[in-house]
Write a structure and sequence with these properties.
Layout (H helix, E strand, L loop, with lengths): L4 H17 L10 E3 L5 E3 L2 H7 L4 H12 L22 E7 L3 E6 L1 H12 L14 E5 L11 H19 L3 E5 L8 H11 L12 H21 L1 H15 L3 H25 L15 H13 L4 E3 L2 E4 L14 E4 L7 H14 L5 E7 L3 H14 L7 E7 L2 E2 L16 H19 L5 H21 L7 E2 L2 H4 L7 H16 L17 H10 L2 H11 L3 H20 L8 H24 L9
Parallel strand pairs: 5-6, 5-10, 10-11, 12-13
Antiparallel strand pairs: 1-2, 2-4, 3-4, 7-8, 8-9
Helix pairs in contact: 1-3, 2-3, 4-17, 4-20, 6-7, 6-8, 7-8, 7-9, 10-11, 11-12, 13-14, 16-19, 16-20, 17-19, 17-20, 18-19, 19-20
The structure holds arginine.
The site of arginine (ARG) has 9 residues, from helix 11 and strand 10.
């Protein structure tokens, strides 16, 4: 695997610092940063000079001389520096300001990195966390209900994190925590039993038909529940028979679960996300464990009875009225809710799934819930010290008016409609770019472009912020959009197809590089560091920012450095290697976000 140049530099500078200062510098961070004056700068001399009470500029001069022997650096005659063995990637060092080191890399070092990455399926990026297991709870739609934009965000962010964490070497266990339990099922089952004709006529039907009859069932059952006291009583009794394991009730419940899954599968297929049926572990899965959790917490005094309900209290968690807000483990009527289920899920994820890390990709409005659940699980030891639990929160999706995203009639937007709308919108973009496509091809490309655009818009805003759902901007050919990146990637392939026969992307390390070639090579080298921060912070937008900036750097390179019409065969092959690696980097980056990048668009 290729070490990034910035890492190699950090090692070289640390070696030089240690040679000059001894042990005081052994663990120092040389603070390697990109620079406007050279390729990189090392800022680590100043804090060290302060620590050893030395003159930073003098120290910097000695370190520079140790890095690049005085002979190679006219003007900085031997300052009495010991020789250090370094990687040899540094071509020149310059001391700047009070003690910064400006570092310029050898062209051959840049070329060497390109060659190493190009020959590797992972583009030279090594996995960092082998042997660790992450359990990730995401998507989480509710049975018998439409998926809405909140589920879109959880699904898209969760899917990207799954891909990114797996690439990083983790074992990832997906958990789709379906909302498949609750008192509303009494009402739905009762209505279905009394109105068998509510089901669709034909046995074979699409996910859309499935959700449309379930939505109608929900609406009609609720209306009857509110209008008819007799029905409401029968519905309440139905909850009890369902919980008692009554077969007729269970069969109706299972039918609704199966119908909903048919719809979810349809949505997941359109979205091209990795969730499958085996990942669905609904709330009902935890029912057998809830009574035990409640008894355990009560016995150990972690939860206490308050007005009949079993509650856990926290310092500093108070409502607007100043009263403490508890986590309710068991309601006063004996029923268990959302919190008890989440506590049981933690036990399962730690005990059975062997999680080292548990991620919850859920809306930021549930922040307090997760804070209380995690704290309770820690107190009870369900969540041991070695296991990290993170609420990977996200903001809301807003309409172009800046208010929560709704239809014109003020209703929540159906996810399928929203996705279809994005694809429809993308047809125009695809046609603008390539007017010769026939209708069917245009539709197929629009699907790739439109779905990519929805995902990218979501992933490219900092996760915790709200964002505006604006299709015009999302499918635009310019700006920070997936469409821009997909076309940049396709253009790269069209350049590669135009190379004269016999020309292969091949690195010639002895060639001097143009500034635009150097800038591109340096940026390509940053992929690994970018991915490392993305998985450490669960922030996919850092990857989109990197990819967008890479595509811009590429454009600048392509304007300044002809590839097909390069001045010599070697230069052509060398540039082709940069083109190819840029294409591969864009493709890998987009795929890790769950967005496809076809070679031709
Ligand atoms: N189904 C819930 C909703 O639609 C989200 C569930 C989140 N996950 C969890 N483990 N509580 O709001």
């Amino acid at each position: 695997m290729a070490k990034a140049l910035s890492e190699i530099l950090a090692e070289d500078v640390r070696a030089a610092l240690t040679a000059v200062l001894g042990d005081a510098a052994r663990d120092a961070d040389p603070l390697i940063r990109p620079s406007d004056h050279a390729d990189f700068q090392a800022n680590g001399v100043l804090p060290l000079a302060k620590a050893v009470k030395g003159n930073p500029r003098e120290l910097a001069i000695r370190v520079a001389a140790a890095l690049v022997p005085a002979a190679a650096q006219p003007g900085s005659a031997d300052a009495g520096s010991p020789a250090v063995s370094t990687s040899g990637v540094i071509a020149a060092v310059e001391v700047a300001g009070p003690g910064f080191l400006n570092l310029t890399l050898a062209d051959a070092a840049l070329a060497g990195q390109v060659a190493e990455r190009l020959g590797d399926a992972r583009l030279g990026v090594s996995p960092s966390t082998i042997g660790q297991t992450t359990v990730i709870d995401y998507s989480q739609p509710n049975i018998a209900k439409e998926m809405h934009v909140g589920h879109l965000r959880s699904t898209v962010i969760g899917d990207a994190l799954v891909r990114l964490l797996e690439f990083d070497g983790r074992t990832v266990v997906r958990q789709n925590h379906l909302g498949d339990w609750g008192t509303q099922f009494g009402m739905l089952i009762q209505y279905l039993v009394e109105h068998p004709e509510a089901r669709p006529a034909q046995a074979e039907h699409s996910g859309e038909v499935a959700i449309s009859w379930l939505t109608a069932l929900y609406r009609d059952a609720r209306a009857e529940f509110e209008a008819d006291g007799g029905f409401a009583d029968r519905a309440r009794k139905r909850v009890v028979t369902l919980q008692g394991g009554d077969e007729e009730s269970l069969a109706a419940w299972e039918e609704m679960v199966a119908e909903s899954k048919r719809y979810f599968e349809d949505v997941y297929g359109r979205l091209d996300v990795r969730l499958v049926d085996a990942d669905a572990v609904g709330e009902s899965f935890y029912n057998p464990y809830l009574a035990d959790i409640a008894a355990d917490l009560e016995q150990r005094g972690i939860a206490v009875r308050s007005d009949g309900a079993l509650c856990v209290f926290f310092d500093g968690v108070k409502g607007p009225d100043g009263e403490p807000v508890p986590l309710i483990v068991q309601k006063s009527d004996g029923g268990f809710g959302y919190a008890a289920t989440d506590l049981a899920a933690i036990r399962h994820r730690v005990g059975t799934l062997k999680a080292d890390q548990i991620l919850y990709v859920v809306d930021s409005r549930q922040a307090l819930h997760f804070r209380m659940v995690f704290e309770t699980a820690r107190r009870a030891g369900y969540l041991p010290d070695g296991v990290e639990a993170v609420h990977v929160q996200f903001g809301s999706v807003l309409g172009t008016d800046g208010k929560p995203f709704k239809t014109r009639a003020g209703q929540t937007v159906r996810l399928i409609e929203l996705l279809d709308g994005a694809v429809d919108h993308a047809v125009a973009t695809v046609a603008e770019k390539n007017p010769d496509l026939d209708a069917e091809q245009a539709r197929a490309e629009a699907r790739v472009v439109g779905i990519g655009a929805v995902k990218y818009a979501d992933l490219s805003t900092s996760r915790t912020k709200d964002y505006i759902f604006d299709l015009d901007r999302m499918v635009s050919l310019t700006g920070n959009t997936s469409v821009y990146l997909q076309y940049a990637h396709a253009r790269i392939h069209s350049i590669l197809r135009k190379l004269p026969v016999g020309t292969e992307p091949r690195v010639h390390a002895d060639l001097a590089l143009e500034p635009a070639e150097r800038r591109l090579a340096l940026q390509l080298d940053e992929l690994g560091a970018t991915l490392a921060t993305v998985v450490a912070e669960f922030e996919p937008h850092r990857l989109t920012t990197y990819l967008y900036s890479l595509a811009q750097t590429f454009s600048d390179f392509y304007e300044n450095c002809p590839v097909v019409k390069a001045p010599s065969a070697e230069v052509r092959e060398n540039r082709a290697a940069l083109v190819r690696l840029t294409g591969d980097t864009l493709k890998l980056g987009l795929e890790l976000l769950g967005i496809s990048a076809p070679d031709q668009l």
